[in-house]
């Protein structure tokens, strides 16, 4: 095998951890200690004169803090180092215009997480078809759901290995996100056909060949009524709070239950997205999408004054929060999945794709009868059909006309525009 045919890939793999109640408490304590460490570091930074804000000084400061403050000792030394590294990287990101300046992390606003920077500490083994075991520093051996073949044991080598992990707690509990590094053969160019995709208004994803990908509701009727009940209860308790009163344990518990149901819906949506994008990347060689702007996305739900959107109520609330981030994620998934399978993803600037007739090519005002049906007003054509498929065919047409705006092929990296910062901001 020559190096030329192999490509290095780095990706994350997230698995659910089966922690005991004591394990959950230990992980919680570590995450709280990591957050406290961050806050101490930030306080130290703000207090220090500019020239003394060095990595070495910060390192000395956190070592001292670990000695002075008892509960910080629950955080493994490696994880404390990782906090330091992340904090300095946050400033770097800020100075390079990619992010806002780091700030204090509040207890309830922050995602609980602990870094395990060294892959060799993990000592991963597979113990069952569905279960693996991982070593978590200061917690012990923990089972996790084995849903993907990981390069561990005999299958691990210098190129294929797990380089580290991160513990993350969400509303469904503690998870572990492995950082996986592999060396894989470069895929053969995908011979499949070209396809245009439109974010449907009536269907989630419409393809130019007439295929649609749809999904049901993310929550069952029972789950939805429970969510509504919990939200009403939370609102009721909020109304009866006196100003300045602390949030009660019961209210926090209700918030957690609400977050749990929302996370469940989101996980189902994510699962559907993975299945859909994998199917598309397997079938088609070139995938063309519309280069959407945020304003377009808002419009697609609300509609315009002349052309109000349908089902606006259904597209608000929970659905909106999932749909809102869904398209960007669909494109991200398609970008790396097509690249992995030898295909390409192309973005085209697509104003008016929903108003142009894909049969005759005329953009005649009033052609879109409703959100669902397109009827061409050109007297020589008169074509009518599904409005979303029509838009998808227009997206493909724009690509074939050579209007590709951004060649996104094989590029899973999101490039952000650099903001110009005034020199005084440093
Ligand atoms: Zn027409």
Automatic annotation (TrEMBL):
Residue stretches making up the Probable transposase IS891/IS1136/IS1341 domain = 186-300
Q: Which residues form the Cas12f1-like TNB domain?
A: 327-395
Name one process (GO BP) from the record. Answer: transposition
Q: By its UniProt entry, which Pfam families does this protein fall under?
A: Cas12f1-like_TNB, OrfB_IS605
Q: Where are the transmembrane segments?
A: none
Tell me the GO molecular function terms.
DNA binding
The residues forming the signal peptide are: none
Q: Which UniProt keywords apply?
A: DNA recombination, DNA-binding, Transposition
Q: Which family does it belong to?
A: In the C-terminal section; belongs to the transposase 35 family.
Q: Which NCBIfam families match?
A: guided_TnpB (NF040570)
Q: What is the protein name stated in its UniProt record?
A: Putative transposase
Tell me the classification of the organism that encodes this protein: Bacteria, Bacillati, Actinomycetota, Actinomycetes, Kitasatosporales
């Amino acid at each position: 095998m020559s190096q030329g045919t192999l490509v290095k890939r780095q990706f994350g793999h997230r698995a659910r951890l089966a922690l005991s109640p004591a394990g959950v408490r230990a992980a919680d304590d570590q995450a709280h200690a990591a957050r406290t460490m961050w806050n101490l570091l930030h306080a130290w930074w703000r207090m220090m004169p500019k020239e003394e804000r060095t990595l070495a000084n910060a390192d000395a400061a956190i070592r001292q803090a670990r000695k002075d403050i008892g509960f910080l000792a629950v955080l493994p030394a490696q994880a404390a180092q990782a906090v330091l590294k992340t904090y300095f990287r946050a400033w770097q990101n800020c100075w390079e215009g990619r992010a806002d300046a780091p700030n204090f992390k509040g207890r309830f606003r922050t995602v609980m997480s602990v870094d395990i920077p060294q892959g060799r500490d993990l000592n991963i083994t597979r113990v069952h078809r569905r279960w693996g075991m991982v070593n978590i520093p200061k917690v012990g051996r923990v089972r996790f759901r084995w849903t993907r073949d990981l390069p561990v044991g005999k299958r691990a080598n210098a190129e294929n290995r797990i380089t580290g992990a991160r513990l993350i707690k969400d509303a469904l509990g503690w998870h572990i996100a492995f950082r996986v590094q592999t060396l894989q053969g470069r895929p053969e160019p995908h011979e499949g056909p070209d396809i245009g995709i439109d974010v449907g208004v009536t269907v989630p994803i419409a393809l130019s060949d007439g295929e649609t990908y749809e999904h049901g509701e993310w929550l069952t009727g029972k789950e939805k009524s429970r969510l509504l009940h919990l939200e009403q209860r939370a609102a009721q308790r909020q109304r009866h709070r006196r100003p300045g009163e602390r949030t009660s344990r019961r209210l926090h518990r209700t918030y957690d239950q609400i977050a749990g149901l929302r996370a469940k819906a989101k996980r189902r949506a994510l699962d559907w997205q993975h299945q859909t994008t994998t199917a598309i990347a397997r079938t088609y060689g070139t995938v063309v999408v519309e280069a959407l702007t945020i304003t377009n996305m808002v419009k697609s739900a609300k509609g315009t004054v002349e052309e109000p959107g349908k089902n606006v109520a259904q597209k608000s609330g929970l659905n909106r929060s999932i749909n809102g981030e869904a398209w960007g994620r669909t494109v991200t998934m398609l970008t790396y999945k097509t690249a992995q399978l030898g295909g390409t993803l192309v973005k085209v600037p697509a104003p008016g794709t929903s108003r142009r007739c894909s049969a005759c090519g005329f953009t005649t005002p009033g052609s879109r009868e409703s959100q669902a049906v397109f009827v061409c007003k050109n007297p020589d054509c008169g074509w009518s059909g599904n409005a979303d498929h029509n838009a998808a065919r227009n997206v493909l047409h724009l690509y074939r006309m050579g209007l590709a705006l951004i060649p996104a092929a094989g590029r899973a990296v999101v490039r952000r525009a650099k903001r110009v910062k005034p020199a005084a901001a440093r």
